[in-house]
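Components:
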Amino acid sequence: MTLSLTPLHGIPLIRQGDDLADILVGSLQTTRLTLEDNDILVITSKIVSKAEGRLVDLATVTPSERARELARQAEKDPRLVELLLQESNEILRVRPGVIIVEHRLGFVCANAGIDHSNVAPLHLPQDSPNLRGEEGVLLLPRDPDQSSRKIREKIEAQTGKRIGVMIIDSHGRAWRIGTVGMCIGLSGIPAVMDERGWRDLFGYELKITIVGVADELAAAASLVMGQAAEGTPAVHVRGFPYPLREGSFKELLRPKEQDMFR
Amino acid sequence: MTLSLTPLHGIPLIRQGDDLADILVGSLQTTRLTLEDNDILVITSKIVSKAEGRLVDLATVTPSERARELARQAEKDPRLVELLLQESNEILRVRPGVIIVEHRLGFVCANAGIDHSNVAPLHLPQDSPNLRGEEGVLLLPRDPDQSSRKIREKIEAQTGKRIGVMIIDSHGRAWRIGTVGMCIGLSGIPAVMDERGWRDLFGYELKITIVGVADELAAAASLVMGQAAEGTPAVHVRGFPYPLREGSFKELLRPKEQDMFR
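Structure:
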């Protein structure tokens, strides 16, 4: 079966309080797609954060002494680093320009996933040319699995179709250049497929056991979304090759004690 | 534009000397797909290795003292570890069941990508039931970029279409559970897109600069291939959202001196 990923058109700039389920249903119509059972909608963390009011005005942040010290090491704004500390369980590495953390959600990422780009400036009109909006930064959603579930349930109630919803973010990797889309929240789809005990073509057990299918789908959706002005924050997926079930992004988190690279 | 990924049917068990370009063209016909300009074919490292004769009979391998010591630590077959050492630039971590290396091709992976599964046993007829083929192991292709280029050029000569070819393997990640498909060789497509200097919706420069588009596509293709008996080793891709150009998987390798997690 073909896996097809289609960017959704007609999604407006998202503001706090917007109903993403309604907006997604509208953009499916604009894109002339009709939801079917087992379809999946993949959306960026950014629009979820905006809808949930996770935009923070840096002018309201008072950095702690620890944040100021870390900011010196990382050559970053101490107020940004203060937010990063609040959003993190643990600091893993510090270099000029980058702080690698274990996010409070449990995954390892750069700069606690705090985002400057495509954030509407707080103190300037939206339609000004050449805006400088550096005072507004966006934190990751508070509980992305729950956000996914709410959107899924509302769309399922509206359409009568059984679907999956996934929230993704762009992450760097330890050993490889380039960001890739990764799953940071989902509902209605498996995050991993455990293939222990499956037999290969010659009848003996596969050694590779667990496949990160949600991260594979997140990467695919990220490719379709693009990263810059031309990008779209939502993708419709048809043909996901595994049965849908409830899941959690936490299936993808390697327990710290099994992590050889901290 | 929709990105669509379709598994190719009718690919036989691959043997040393098989012409993968011819086999892929045949399987496109079987799958009723006609190549168009900018299409991409993604194939597993496994079929490339088999075609190139990278199958090694463990009975022919004499482990060194270093291999025997490492095998004790990792609880692995010393002959397998000998091959792993030959295929690696550097050993990064050793744990029971796993050795993390920098492969001679330059990327970090587990067990030097040496594969036991779906390898035809060397000393038993192919059609025996319940075969035990544990003496045969498969090394990664010698030069996957070059393998990709040869396949691409032959298919382009046969079809008159400008395409891309990518070879993928399933890799684990430092901090996350589950393998995902990653690019280990390509020809005719970019491995990364450098988006430095692109401006976002609000007119200032994006901070996230380089996207690992080949790894995103590799993950997408891996999702479609599946991992076990039902899997297929080749996927046809239409709708890759970036212009095709010549590339190399080496664009994805983080220089060792920039790697914070070794």
